[in-house]
Amino acid sequence: MEYNKDISIVISLFNEEESLSELISLIEQVMSNEGFSYEVIMVDDGSTDSSWQKIKELSEENSNIRGISFRRNYGKSAALYHGFKAAIGRVVITMDADLQDSPKEIPEMYKMVTEDGYDIVSGWKKQRLDNKITKNLPSKLYNATARLITGIRLHDMNCGLKAYRNEVIKNIEVYGEMHRYIPYLAKNAGFTKITEKPVHHQKRKYGKSKFGLERFVNGFLDLISLWFLSTFGKKPMHFFGFTGILMFLAGGILTIWVIAEKLLQQAKGLAFRPVTDQPLFYLALLAVILGFQLFLSGFICEMISRNSQERNHYNIKEEI
Length: 320
Fold this sequence. Notes:
- This protein has 320 residues and is α/β, with parallel strands linked by helices.
- The protein has two domains: 5-231, Alpha-Beta Complex (Spore Coat Polysaccharide Biosynthesis Protein SpsA, Chain A); 237-306.
- Helices cover 49% and strands 13% of the residues.
- Strands 3-2-1-4-6-5-7 form a seven-stranded mixed β-sheet, with helices on both faces.
- α1 (17-34) links the parallel β1 and β2 (38-44).
């Protein structure tokens, strides 16, 4: 496939008017020094300040700058989705607009994709300058959990500075708050050459962070959802049906055992406890009911999956 630019830089932003001029100046300097053909796609995610006006001014000064403005704030995933959709560069770079990501990292990341053959190069803020308690510790726990579940050995999966082969971002769909797990989405789509590069982390110069501690809770829930969908999305019966059958059988066996034990004690003339007086009997019945419901849920999910338009959507690497 032929690409019109060497690099597409996709920047999602929300209320970052103070940093935009400086950021574009740094990008222009790096691109000029390296001789790259490039475009900057700035996606204004419903800013309430003058960010969009600043983007329009910058685009008039530099024809390489393109802008997309949302009517309201939809979130970073929505911004990246539209930025990826518009990107025409051979390599797509994502970075934040708060000047914490340095454009000087771009040339090396570009070479790692084009020369070393990686699908994704993720930045790793090895020496973070954030608050150690509110940012560093939760980030370490979050990334350790992400490595365990996804199997991708990245130290900083949520780093905004990343480089992608264009083919990668055209074959994945970023939605909800899944921008944190683009490497995992890419891995599930068959792009497994993923690595990381230590990058310089700079303190925020203007404004304040748009993210709080709740993003780590939400991020964990999104990770569980993504893992479940990627594992059982096209075969829900394998999870619900198998789990339901196990619970149904366990409950059924326990029910029979409780009743049989009572009958045996009664036949021997020994003291026995009525079945309906035993908590185990009700737990066994509950397991039978839940198992049956899980099996039916799996059957319904399977019917939905088989009628989905995505049921035969596969990424083809090559065709001759």
